């Protein structure tokens, strides 16, 4: 082939560079398989009925889920909830003379569950709720009261566990491993489900890092990508610390990419108004949420092309916070399945990877009469970002068939057609060598 006949062009994301023959057009589709929107079905807390009721429904429909689990009380876990810091008796003695204030609040709150008495956890959660509501002085008073009562001997000896950790303890790592092998993602939701907003940084780190370690030990590195801080907190101190710690590549409640708008569960903002390349739209169905409302979220996706619906479930049937009846899940998930031609249903991890790879990748393309050669390159960590991207390449009108070859694998691909001409859709792996499209 005469090298002068080779035309080269660059394609980045959805921008098309046309040559004089109106092909050499390659785009990376916004969502995998050129779907119109993405859906991630996520569950918090590791409630047993999520696995006994919801997973069988999802498996029948071939839907993968993401499960944010609480690990500290599961049999076989190496790490359990505890206080990281100086002796709690020393802290208790200080409370006799120094009231709780902004300088000592986080340490005292972190220790409050571990004073050696049953009943103190309730006060911890009351303080956490008040603090998250923007009432720090009221939270300080709650912490003062729990230490005063402990010093007065008004609690019985013992240690509490949280409601979520207690329910999660009914699961087993062997079951989780089996579900992971079925294609479901597991992710960190802490050791004991505390209010992170009132923990000091050593205890915040311990809760998340040790949860991650047990997940890695039992389920492998592939399930340490995602995390969600309990109670869906948006506390700035917590979010900044967890992001800076780089413990997890992705946080469900905080993804500060410039091309992504986040609309979290409590927000009423409509996703269709965003001008960003992507919108992560979280919706959390509650016990009283009407099925018609849940279906309307799916309909909203199909009216746009940049929305990622992240569903957040907790309780199923009679267990867990705000439980949803599993019969409703059957109907709702079938509604999504019926629209699967337009919806990409994937784990939280995979949608995150796809977006980041697509926004980071550069495509180099060369063409000759019978072959188009592409190179996909990005500078992301290839041990993490290894998801195939979907490419759409327009072909010369004379091509009747096409083979796609990459990394010693060749497959025949179907030629499709739209108003712009003939094209082929195919999966390609960035940083894995050249992709060759050859006429056949």
TrEMBL record:
Protein name as catalogued: Polysaccharide deacetylase family protein
Species annotation: Ginsengibacter hankyongi
Keyword Flavoprotein among record annotations: no
Listed transmembrane segments: none
InterPro entries: Glyco_hydro/deAcase_b/a-brl, NODB_dom, Polysacch_Deacetylase
One Gene Ontology biological process: carbohydrate metabolic process
Keyword Signal: yes
Gene3D superfamilies from the UniProt entry: Glycoside hydrolase/deacetylase
Residue ranges annotated for the NodB homology domain, each copy included: 35-77, 163-242
Record's keyword terms, sorted: Signal
Molecular function GO terms recorded: hydrolase activity, acting on carbon-nitrogen (but not peptide) bonds
